[in-house]
Amino acid sequence: MKFKRLIGLGLVTLMLGACGGADQGETADEAPAAAADEISVTEAELAGNPFMEEWDTPYGIPPFSAIENGHYMPAMKKAVLELRTDIDAIVNNPDAPTFENTIVALELAGELLGDVASTFGNITGTDTDDELRALETQIYPMLTREFDAITLNPDLWQRVKTIYEQRDSLGLDEQDARLLELRRRAFIRAGAAFTPEVKEQIAEINAEMSAITTTFSQNLLLETKAFTLELTEDDEIAGLSDDFKAAIWNDEKQAWVVGLNRSSYETFMVQAENRELREKLFNGYRLRASEGERDNGPLAIRVATLRAKRAELMGYESHAHYILEYNMAKTPKGAEDFLLRVWRPGLEQAKQERTDMQAMMADGETFAAHDWWHYAEKLRLERYDLDENATKPYFDLENVRAGAFEMANRLFGVTFEEVDVEGWNPVVVSFDMKDENGDHLGLFMTDMYARDSKRGGAWMSSYRGTSNINGDKIRPLITNNLNLPTPPEGDPTLMRFSDVETLFHEFGHGLHGLMTKIDYPMFSGVDGPRDYTEFPAQILEHWTSQPEMLELYATHYETGDVIPTELVDRMLLAANHNQGFYTTEYVAASLLDLRWHMLSSEEAAAITDAHVFEREVLEGYGLIPEIEPRYRSEYFAHIFSSSTGYSSGYYAYLWSEILDADGFAAFKQAENIFDPEVAARLKKWVYEAGGIKPADELYRNFRGSDPSIEPLLEGRGFAVEEAGGN
Ligand SMILES: [Zn+2]
Known about the structure:
A five-stranded mixed sheet has the order 4-5-6-8-7. A three-stranded antiparallel sheet has the order 1-3-2. Helix content is 52%, strand content 6%. By secondary structure, the protein is α+β, with helices and mostly antiparallel strands. Helix 7 runs antiparallel to helix 8 and helix 18 crosses helix 21 (547-553). Bound molecules: zinc ion. The site of zinc ion has 6 residues, from helix 19.
């Protein structure tokens, strides 16, 4: 969730931070050419509004305690009006268009909106309430229409186009040239360059798609709520832990009630001894929204058809071709080939896991899909006997964070000093980050604890991006959010190892935002192709389990002893358990996503049954019947519940893993996880480089070659299939 002082990219940076929610994606390509709203705001409505005043605060952070819910809407309106003034000044400038008066001016437009929208976006993520939720439903559609009106403004596009055509004679440096390239691309991909007739058709498609995807998502929500298992008998709750039973007890019904949200679904599938009930829940989960009046199958077909049609109108072979054009994978074939190289060893391993679990079944019982979670856990306990309470005392938040800072210091020379500034919540702890020369790089604000008003998961965000236009030297305000349970007063915060990895992951996104040396907000931070952006975060996870790092931070909170090697070994082996299954269900969903979006509009329209299409595709790849794709088409919200979302991009999580596994291998090859030369290249070409070059070039500059897939396969415990890069 970050907002940069620019327009044209649409809401994507506003609504989705790094690691943002999976199914709320919005991109610039989706919006109908709707007219902007009538907006007005009076001086009286703005009286005493902190967004209208200079912020006399340390580091220029928002004056959090002075901002009330009622301040947002008037400030937002005022900010939109100022943005219009900025845009009008560019469009109506009587001078011929120049790089400065158009492209740079667009970077500087809407400064107040940057402050208001980033504060609003961050606070609604960390400390929301009913009033703010209601405001979101008014503010985001208003901003969408506003940005559409700008991106589809023909006069503005004409200026951008004119400058682009003169680019070779303008004496632009590398950053200027990149800015011009990306700005033009954003306009084109939104449809700015087409004739009014084509624009109108695109707008019609977008409008229909917006309606269908909303219905898809509402059907899914209703169907997910509609299914429950009510348990009252002892044999129905056999195996369930006290914690889980307490969490699902329903006083009104005097029963334990299990629903279909992923976390209770998986917990039940792991713990429940009652095989018949496991099968019931399994079918409840996978048959959601697949028949009757809330059947999402026909909607998926229609969305795929519309996306294909739109891509064809814009001159692409398919929607997947359109989406992947600027991703690292570049083409649907590139993404598919990559997936298949992981798919084959993953599927082999899954078959072995199936055999191992069949051997644990009672005589005469045949292992089935609804047995997988339950028996995988039995096997894990039998093999590794690992209780997370044994490792937690070695992962005290204070030590873990200090370890992450020490790692960054050894790799990049940066330092962190805790500073006393007022955050958005009393639990926020902030650090002044400096480079190796002692120059200020940015403010790093951390909010580690869960609370009811905060959304789930973990994410990095910013209150202010970086800018160095005309030497203004604005450094960023970067945040990290986790959702650790708050310990009892006075106790240390002891973490699970997976939370330690998450902390390092978000810290990696944070460094990507904090260390940037890019002058233009448009490509200064963590944004980039979807299959690259997770790389700077994921690579840091590798340090968490290295012996040299563990000595630095994994010390017992009472005795100070370093975590025993034997415990670490078991912990890491257990982490790779059941990897065949996880890989197979994930890659199956990724292949399904790609295949839906590689269809032509004619092919998509000819499909009569979404499920038949899905089965044919996945059986074609050899999927075994005991494993379902992670999402079936009827509840694949990542790709069908919003206009673009992750469509053709669900593979990207795994793609980033090639980069982080191969990137970390560079340190292993140097036999030093803090090797100064490798670290210097990582710093220069990844953390400082933003999006100055296409992602594959950045990676090659860091690594000296294209990434190889072998380290990923080894990391997942798979046999390496063949030599060569991917
Ligand atoms: Zn991430």
